[in-house]
Amino acid sequence: MADGIPIEITGLTKRFGAVTAVEDLGFTVQPGKVTGFLGPNGAGKTTTLRVLLGLERPDAGTATFGGTPYAALPRPLETVGASLDASFHPGRSARNHLLVYATAAGIDRSRVPAVLAQVGIAEYADRRVGGYSLGMRQRLALAYTLLGDPGVFVLDEPINGLDPEGIKWIRGFLQALAREGRTVLVSSHLLSEVQQSVDDVVIISKGRLVKRGTLASLELDAAPRTIVDSPDRAALVAALDAAGLEYTEGRGGLIVAEPDPARVGHAAFVGGVELSALHRLKSGLEESFLSLVGGGDES
Ligand SMILES: Nc1ncnc2c1ncn2[C@@H]1O[C@H](COP(=O)(O)OP(=O)(O)OP(=O)(O)O)[C@@H](O)[C@H]1O
Ligand SMILES: [Mg+2]
Asked: Fewest beta carbons less than 10 Å away: which of 37, 110, 132, 194?
């Protein structure tokens, strides 16, 4: 097995014409853990991973494996196992697909039956992939990432389309890889989907980093709070400061560390501030996630 290497993203910006898909993004992914790369549809997850894997050129910044860009890795398949979209030639079998990739990368053919067994599709190995279910294709994509026994895994939405049994299986699978000291980065647009699989989270919204830390730190953020906003944000900030209320900036307003909206409303009243929003933020991990990325009912 290859060593786990940290993934390092620094000041990354990627534009497509007028669309800024990723903006000044920076985070590190450590070996020995499963890291969830989270954000709603269109947040820039796939774009970030495509830059990391050398499929897109960034407008600014770097994305490397311990300082080395993907294109400069001497034996890429044996360093990084990557799956971006599970598209396979429908007429070929899983075994043939993997044999082609193994041969091209100079990897021993004996790895092919080994990885097919590891992901639980050995019995379908000689079937045409065109007849595979989405879950079986997801497993084949994982088998491909395992071919070179790499120390780093970069997986774009690997849980999408799996049934509950498949989700349970992949959870154990990802955690076993991390326990062996590998680096595991897994994207998802749903926190609930990866919540039980990840140790760390990196959350992006509209191409920008909104949160990174342990899953436990996100749970801490999930205490009941109040969302408040005003046409005059500066006046609102002054009123909250005057009342000694702590807050962070959310997409749909200021998120105040106070469970009772009436107390926040009173602080605004005292400061003579007009409000455009005032309500309680439901507690819970998913709500905390949604308040960070601007979904849910406070956006
Ligand atoms: N090749 C491209 N040309 C133009 N715009 C693009 C291209 N690729 C991505 N984008 C835009 O960049 C933004 C980020 O897209 P991206 O696919 O990275 O998001 P995502 O977080 O992976 O979303 P999803 O959860 O839907 O997979 C979107 O606005 C998207 O429309
Ligand atoms: Mg995507």
From this structure: 110
